[in-house]
């Protein structure tokens, strides 16, 4: 059993293969205190770490110094209004206008397996894969019950957490939740830095470190989605962290809307880290006997550097979060017409691309934005989900059938959550857009967001998408979302419920995607948001892959994919070979390098195959072969970050080792060359030190220990932006 409760000391211990997480019930009031998280402990006798007996903080003796105690005790789920002046997780507003909540332990249950979270994405595990704990806490004065939900994935060094709040109705007919975070961990400062990821459109998930100190350091999105700018992930790292050494505590939020995660050292250098839905414009009215379920936080601890955290998250997401049957399958190599044609295409143009692509081994045509309504540019027509027959002469079914005749599958782009002011839908239902009455709502890319929290809007949206999907043999959907939320207002919600709109919106998106998967179980879904603005664990529950970034330049992608792959499996990273000069940065890179970089993700093309240089086109069959040869390994293997161009300014290198240890694929990208007589020695990771490995295509054989401790010699390719794939097999 991965979770135990010691009846006499009232200590809970959650164990995974290499980690322990310990908390316990304090005697005076029944506060739940956090004692320990880190390397595995043999025993649970660590309640001394709660330091409750240390004067002057003696809660069991009197009330005299209660606030001093509350303000520095390590709480498992701190609440607001009672004297813990640090960042806390739960805050309410009663009808009388008060905000205090104080939680005491009531009961608990431990069981094998893991329950689903209603309406929310979450990790899952069978009875032999994880153990769960629910600790019931309560505030009797409010009649509020708070259930802390934990699961320990024993083989994976993962602990997940979430929280459910219930108004028992014994004291308050309704109560307003104004802040419900999902997790908190208090621990002594180990000179921590906070690793987080930030960016913008076309520059997603750039890795950043900041020192944790007094004052809050963190990430936050109040944009209605997980966003390009900040990512719902933080990790506490000890000094001089590397891929293979140092301690890491990773926290990842399984949610696609507003979030916050903060670390702060208090006056005594105790560090509190919290994560959950951002309290910004959040109020949730909980009527008698109603429950509010907060989303899940995934926690990973590694005492062996970043790499162990990365591989743990990859395995967790591949096996316990992504549900799509495609997660275990090689995805069809697609060609997307966005960068090829933008809005200017016709049936004939798409078929010309498909004809050429099919000859070269590409397996699916994806028709991107511009096929519907009056969509000749991005100023109009979102919401008018009927085929534009001026562009698609013969209709959608004709096009799909013709593509199928070429032996290719067909995929389509939607942006179902949006409405353009210049659309039939808006002219008919102007109130369907999220807006504050009496105020002109701001546009972004000339569009508004549909108020999907209204049942009739959700139903209409569903009917529009499903009608199109039923009208032809469509096997893939790219679900886009190209603006963030502002001017929050819903005609559907009472004034005291307007603060529910952000979260209800995310729940509605989840409901729509759930319905899509239920009704079209064989569909391959790829989420997208102006590139990678909704690349988050929540979305992975619905789609096995997410478009990583609109920046398709191979060199820019190195940093974007490094950040993304640190916490997401390569199998989920949408990556395409595009044309040069690159449409985002104007850079010219070799076609081969573009192929090698895209191979680290789902792999596909995004260019006008009828127009690219002959020489590039001729390389496609070879790249197709490369994908078929290596994708099983890339999709299922263990990923190691070997070198980072972000850190060394010269080259990037990553490695994938098959789970059985027999195959190793090294990708080396030389960004800027420099004079050097010798080859570069690249220290590999994750090999068997006793084994020997042969470099395919040569007669070179190396020992595993030499490759790891001395390095694999990689000859400098001549020039900039050059890359190499090196494939080694166990002798
Ligand atoms: C977003 C996507 C692109 C493309 C365009 C279409 O920016 O990320 O890949 O689909 O929308 O408008």
Descriptive report:
The chain is of the alpha+beta class and 731 residues long. The protein folds into three domains: 3-320, Beta-galactosidase, Chain A, domain 5, CATH 2.70.98.60; 325-632, TIM Barrel, CATH 3.20.20; 642-730, Sandwich (Immunoglobulin-like), CATH 2.60.40.1180. Helix content is 20%, strand content 30%. The strands form seven sheets. Strands 6, 7, 8, 9, 11, 12, 14, 15, 19 and 20 form a ten-stranded antiparallel sheet that branches. Strands 29-28-27-26-23-22-21-31-30 form a nine-stranded parallel sheet. Helix 4 runs parallel beside helix 5 (395-405), helix 10 packs parallel to helix 11 and helix 11 runs parallel beside helix 12. The longest helix has 23 residues, at 614-636. 51% of the residues are buried. The mean pLDDT is 97. The structure holds alpha-D-galactopyranose. Alpha-D-galactopyranose binds next to loops.
List the helices and strands and how they pair.
Layout: E1 3-6, E2 11-15, E3 19-25, E4 32-39, H1 66-70, E5 90-93, E6 104-112, E7 130-139, E8 144-153, E9 158-167, E10 174-188, E11 193-198, E12 206-211, E13 217-221, E14 230-237, E15 248-254, E16 259-265, E17 270-276, E18 284-287, E19 291-293, E20 296-302, H2 306-320, E21 334-336, H3 338-341, H4 347-360, E22 364-367, H5 395-405, E23 409-414, E24 418-419, H6 424-428, E25 448-449, H7 455-470, E26 476-479, H8 501-519, E27 524-527, H9 537-540, E28 545-547, H10 554-567, E29 573-574, E30 577-578, H11 591-599, E31 604-606, H12 614-636, E32 638-643, H13 645-648, E33 651-657, E34 663-670, E35 680-682, E36 692-695, E37 701-703, H14 704-709, E38 712-714, E39 722-730
Parallel strand pairs: 21-22, 21-31, 22-23, 23-26, 26-27, 27-28, 28-29, 30-31
Antiparallel strand pairs: 1-2, 2-3, 3-4, 5-10, 6-7, 7-8, 8-9, 9-19, 9-20, 10-17, 10-18, 11-12, 11-14, 13-16, 14-15, 15-20, 16-17, 24-25, 32-33, 33-34, 34-39, 35-38, 36-37, 36-39
Helix pairs in contact: 4-5, 10-11, 11-12
Bound molecules: alpha-D-galactopyranose.
